[in-house]
Amino acid sequence: MGEIPEIGKISAEIFDELIFPRLGAKSDSILVGPGHGALAKHKP
Fold first, then answer.
1. Considering 14, 36, 43, 44, which has the largest number of Cβ atoms within 10 A of its Cβ?
2. pLDDT by 10-residue block (mean), the chain, 44 residues
């Protein structure tokens, strides 16, 4: 596993190992799920 920085962004490796496996259940109300560098913007 990579090193977790004190500040700033985490690596894709840390995301995959520590965060992604702990995310909640899928929902039809979520259009774009989590991912590496994935940003989504809601259009009013």
1. 14
2. 79 86 86 71 63
